[in-house]
Amino acid sequence: RKEFVELYVNYVFSESIQKQFEDFMQGFLRGCPTKNWKMFLPGELQLLLQGHTKFDWHLLEKKVKYTGYNKLDPTIRKFWTVFHKLPEERKKMFLAFLSGSDQISAYKLECFPFSIEDPQVENPDETYLAANTCSCILFLPR
Fold first, then answer.
1. Is 134 one of the catalytic residues?
2. What is the pLDDT of residue 40?
3. If we measure between CA atoms, which residue out of 121, 56, 141 comes closest to residue 95?
């Protein structure tokens, strides 16, 4: 039985998909030649492809730009108070809402272009929080 299971698993995960994998690998290497990847250490390559996974959220707060607000505005202070109380998973969900991804690419958090803008709507209590993911702008009603 053990030999049968080993042979079956080998067939399903290796032999049965070998042609498709070779075709994929040939196309991938045409677009991303291995000689370009050899210059990276494994950790650097992972960072390049995956991005940062741990963040200094206080640094994000320091680097944010404000339009229609200043950092001492009560709305902003409440926002950051609530944000810093969130669990890590929720903070990453916010990052995904803001930028379209729960990760920040290999360039550091100091360079992350995040801004908070006042949408200047007539009745802020009837307006939802919104984000422009292309520009990483959070529209935060008062």
1. yes
2. 82
3. 56
Cβ neighbourhood burial of 99 (10 Å; 0-12, 13-18, 19+): buried
Place of tokens 């730009």: 65
**Residue 116 and residue 108 in contact, taking contact as beta carbons nearer than 8 Å:** no
pLDDT tens digits for range 20-65? 999 998 888 888 777 777 788 888 777 777 766 677 888 888 888 9
Residues 81 and 134 in one domain: yes
With CA atoms as reference, report the closest residue to 44 among 102, 108, 106, 104.
Answer: 106
The boundaries of the domain holding residue 107 are 57-139
The pLDDT tens digits of the residues spanning 77-112 come to 999 999 999 998 999 899 889 888 777 765 566 667
Claim: this prediction has a pTM higher than 0.85: no
Number of structural domains found in the chain: 2
CA distances 128 to 33, 67, 88, 123, 141, Å, are 46, 18, 23, 11, 7
Catalytic residue among 32, 111, 134, 136: 134
Q: Which two tokens stand for residue 66?
A: 């404000």
